[in-house]
Amino acid sequence: MLTNSAYSELMAFQRETEALSLVAERLGWDQETMMPRGSGDQRAEEMSAMEGVLHARRTDPRIADWLEKAEAETATTQDPVAAAQLRHIRRSYDRMTKVPARLAQELARVTSKAQGIWAEARSKDDIPSFLPVLEEVIGLRQEEADCLAAGRSRYDALIDDYEPGATAESIGAMFDRMRPRLVALREKVLGADRQPKALSGAFPKEAQLKLSRKLADAFGYDWSRGRLDLAVHPFSSGKGDDSRITTRVVETDPFNCFYSTIHEVGHSCYEQGIDPAYRLTPLGAGVSMGVHESQSRIYENQLGRGRAFTGWLFDRMAETFGPLNVSDAEAFYASVNRVQPGYIRTESDEVQYNLHIMMRFDLERALVSGDLVPKDLEAAWNDRFKADFGVAVDRPRNGILQDVHWSCGLFGYFPTYTLGNVYAGCLMQALVKAVPDYEAHLAKGDARPATAWLQQNLQVHGGLYEPEEVVARACGFAPSEGPLLDYLDAKFGEIYGV
Predict the structure, then answer these.
(1) What is the span of the domain harbouring residue 16?
(2) How far apart are CA 353 and CA 399, in angstroms?
């Protein structure tokens, strides 16, 4: 540790910045869970004011001086933690100093306002009421991308916010490799003679939430540092000693609640699992959204939708709700993994999920470049959805109003969902070898041996390594889409007998 040095001064300054950013994040959590409906305009001003404070700190001229001196100081120590801290601070400083404070504050204000407008529009299937603010958000993000591009495309400039090092070209090439196998698998399972029975019935809200808490327990969620609330679009929020989750309830579809909960637990356990020494530093958060998504998806899918865990869940559901309309644990496992046409990305099965992401990737690239304008988005979405999924969109909340992301300005975020699935496929391949008895524990409702391996091999590192490096270190090989596609072929080929 370098004391009485530029590095120590910089890290003390950074600690306060990180703490203030968490205060701003808590405002966002409150907005999505508990804020009174009439408070949206005021909250937008509050968020703008907080962003002004944070932008001023992140672009403080002293940072440049501290960085120059600290990088010289640490060059001789060969301290990987210090080097990683400086790498993150340098990346943030170089990026933030290109964005005017006025623009940063306006983005915070407008996206905060837009989320409330989106939620209201979604509830009423009212696209026209959302389009003006969406146009405003897109225009601001285009302006920001132009500040950051430095010879790159706008979209590449925005991806850096979520997955440093990724590009539209590399992601597009990966999608091109994945799409044929995913479409072929979907055609086989939808055309199979063996079709799982859908779960049906009434599943009361409070009983769903009670069982959701048991699911969080099963995956090792630390309630002393978290809580569960309801949101229109489930999310997790916070870091370290305050990492919260949300879910939603549909009384005819308990899987919506249960797997949203497990998914968000995966995100939150990543934050809870980072080395405590990194608290309130740039390393004290998940290194990228793709790596973050790898944790939520492996918790939700490979572990939570696996045969061993669904066998345990079948018994818990029968205890909670009474006899189910599926006959046994094996039929329940097939029902949990049932592939069917549907509109909603977050409710999609594993086979089709990434096809939803590929569609959004293409649409938002066109929006950011200006090739597609908001007034034409509904028609573009509906045409593409019919072409990709063979189903006509029946209402806006099942179409362009289903996701909160664009109202938040999160352009460049969607492809990280598929990157997360790809990383999860690689991690699962390694986990199976490292924890050979994990299924025996899952069958008892205990995912912790598996999640402990993830914590020890990936989560603990926080931002210490770059995204692909931290996955490769955990897996022992460079990540690629192959393990995920092999897993999907094997799992769904068995379930459907194809």
Answers:
(1) 6-148
(2) 15
CATH of the domain at 213: 1.10.1370.30
Distances in Å between the Cα of 75 and the Cα atoms of 87, 282, 367 are: 12, 19, 43
Residue 114 burial (CB count, 10 A): 24
Percent of the chain with pLDDT over 70: 99
Place of tokens 């393990």: 483
pLDDT digits (tens, 9 = 90+) for 333-371: 999 999 999 999 989 999 999 999 999 999 999 999 999
Helical H runs in 339-397? 350-369, 377-389
Q: Is residue 389 part of a domain?
A: yes
How many whole angstroms separate alpha carbon 115 and alpha carbon 63?
33
Domain match, 310 and 375 both = yes
Q: Does the structure show a pLDDT above 80 at 4? A: no
Spatial contact of 99 and 146, defined as CB atoms under 8 Å apart? no
Which tokens hold the place of 406? Answer: 């664009």
Q: Are residues 311 and 209 in the same domain?
A: yes
Task: Report the number of distinct structural domains present in the chain.
Answer: 2
Active site residues: 264
Res 321 pLDDT > 90: yes
Residues 181 and 130 reside in one and the same domain: no
The answer to whether residues 200 and 68 belong to one domain is no
Whose tokens are 């799992």? That residue is: 491
